[in-house]
Specification:
The chain has 497 residues and is mainly beta. It folds into 3 domains: 29-130 and 232-349, no CATH class; 134-228, no CATH class; 357-490, no CATH class. The chain contains 7 helices and 38 strands. The strands form 7 sheets. A 9-stranded mixed beta sheet has the order 31-32-34-35-36-30-29-26-33, covered by helices on one side. A hairpin with a 2-residue loop joins β35 (450-459) and β36 (462-466). The longest helix has 10 residues, at 301-310.
């Protein structure tokens, strides 16, 4: 099923996974096929409170621009359950998505219409009607208003961000130009012909009518960043900062317990979406937090909402339907699929006997007397933080630093005494409320012309560093206030053991 007339917007995975369908203690997943309110449906219930269960966005061939069977994508991840995702161009041209995609907390595609579900790091499912705003910064100054991300456009004035997730060579129209930005946030190339997006970097492409702005605003060596603002309708914007995976499609069916099954209010114009009885995939959550994914053989959007309500769902929405309807559940040898699809949602479960877990840190953090919110985790009694979050918290202090990347030594660079330039990836919010998988890794940091290797942990695709290691490297005082249950950073005092 295609959503027409929409106005637009592989990471490190844990290698030790359980056999599909197995679980520890109570079953994490369960499959059921039944007829409910006259609608034939099959669905999988996922208990998000089960240890090691986590959602993953699937991209065909790990790209934005390909198609693949849902089962093939799911099997690569050893998924315990999976369902098809957002609408995509299924009939002509490149099979790019038409809906919003957030993968590992990063926005990699948007739509300004329809509905979006998101799942937070704590396993909570949200549904809302979202819109998105982009802002581009050149050397810290607001200078660009991109239209969309990873979605090529023939519109003369379009400005588009491309990231490595696009997965294909970016084809520029005659007269178009792009500022290509490397992993360290610096412009590496002004492109006037086709190019590949550098790993860890991005590009901002300007179509012919606005290509002159590239020459006026960008030059090689400039520091360029972009930010994505999420605008909500029924939920709080801060809740979406906790979302690690999201897919947009629609129409929404139920939001916060209220039926919202009115496709025209979300920009849908096609009868097969708004009023006809057709095959539909759906996702939703009950009040107890359990998530249900499934397919309906044939239902109108209002009937689909009625069925979801009967299932006890308090938030629910349609995914792509028609020929794209698919469900995968290997425990019961269920692999229903129509056409090859562009994307989907899977659930994986880690092997608890071998998997290391990071616990959310309950400690408060004070920097020079001021309270700072961090995503932080405790591993083996030590607190771990993201380097960019620390840089943002120390900005303006005597120990401020900026972060870059040195390609020659394959090291993170710490620029001492330089104000941190935000990347839009910092997340001053609470961490997951449950333990999450962590994988030990080694990361090199170049500071004061010397390279130091630190043990770090990869959590949800980001490297987390031991706070005490960074305190010693930058020479600031780090103390534990047992009475307040707080970590205190004093940048005016030197580090001490």
């Amino acid at each position: 099923m295609r959503f027409s007339k929409i106005v637009l917007i592989a990471a490190v995975m844990i290698s030790l996974l359980i056999n599909p369908g197995s679980s520890y203690g109570a079953a994490a997943t369960a499959y059921k096929s039944e007829t409910l309110n006259g609608v034939s449906l099959r669905y999988v219930t996922v208990d998000m409170s089960s240890e090691g269960i986590s959602p993953v966005v699937l991209n065909a061939q790990n790209k934005i621009t390909e198609t693949e069977p849902l089962s093939a994508m799911a099997q690569k991840m050893d998924a315990v359950a999976a369902v098809n995702g957002t609408y995509f161009e299924a009939y002509e041209g490149m099979p790019i998505p038409w809906g919003t995609i957030i993968k590992e907390g990063k926005v990699i595609h948007i739509s300004q219409s329809g509905a979006v579900f998101g799942i937070t790091a704590a396993g909570k499912l949200l549904v809302d009607r979202l819109t998105f705003d982009f802002a581009g910064y050149i050397n810290g100054q607001y200078r660009a208003i991109p239209w969309r991300i990873n979605h090529p456009s023939t519109e003369d004035e379009a400005i588009t961000i491309f990231t490595p997730e696009y997965g294909a060579t970016v084809t520029l129209a005659p007269g178009a130009k792009a500022a290509v930005v490397g992993k360290n946030g610096l412009v590496t190339q002004i492109a006037a012909a086709d190019f590949d997006v550098p790993g860890g970097g991005f590009a901002i492409a300007y179509n012919p009518a606005v290509a002159y702005l590239v020459g006026e605003r960008y030059k090689v060596g400039d520091h360029v960043t972009y930010e994505v603002k999420i605008n909500t309708t029924f939920t709080k914007a801060e809740d979406w900062r906790e979302v690690t995976v999201a897919l947009g499609a629609g129409p929404s069916l139920i939001i916060n317990g209220v039926i919202t099954a009115e496709g025209h209010k979300e920009g849908f114009t096609e009868e097969k979406i708004n009023s006809l009885s057709t095959a539909r995939s759906f996702i939703g959550a009950r009040a107890d937090g359990k998530i249900i994914i499934g397919n309906m053989a044939s239902a109108t959007v209002s009937k689909a909402a009625e069925v979801c309500q009967s299932l006890g769902l308090v938030n629910a929405m349609c995914l792509d339907g028609g020929g794209s309807t698919a469900l995968y559940y290997p425990a019961d040898k269920i692999s229903f699929a129509g056409r090859n699809i562009n994307n989907g949602l899977a659930f994986i479960q880690s092997n608890l006997t071998n998997q290391l877990y990071a616990k959310p840190s309950a400690a408060k953090v004070y920097v020079d007397g001021g309270s700072v919110n961090f995503i932080a985790y405790n591993i083996n009694g030590n607190n771990y933080f993201k380097l960019r979050d620390l840089a943002l918290a120390l900005k303006g202090s005597g120990k401020q630093f900026d972060v870059g990347w040195d390609q020659a030594s394959n090291s993170i660079i710490l620029y001492s005494n330089q104000a941190y330039k935000t990347m839009g990836e910092e997340a001053p919010a609470q961490a997951s409320q449950k333990a999450v998988p962590a994988q030990k890794t080694s990361s090199k940091i170049l500071a004061a012309d010397r390279i130091v290797a630190f043990d770090a942990y990869n959590i949800n695709g980001n490297n987390f560093f031991k706070l005490r290691d960074i305190a010693e490297l930058l020479d600031f005082e780090l103390t534990w206030d047992a009475g307040a249950g707080a970590i205190r950073v004093d940048t005016a005092k030197p580090y001490r053991q």
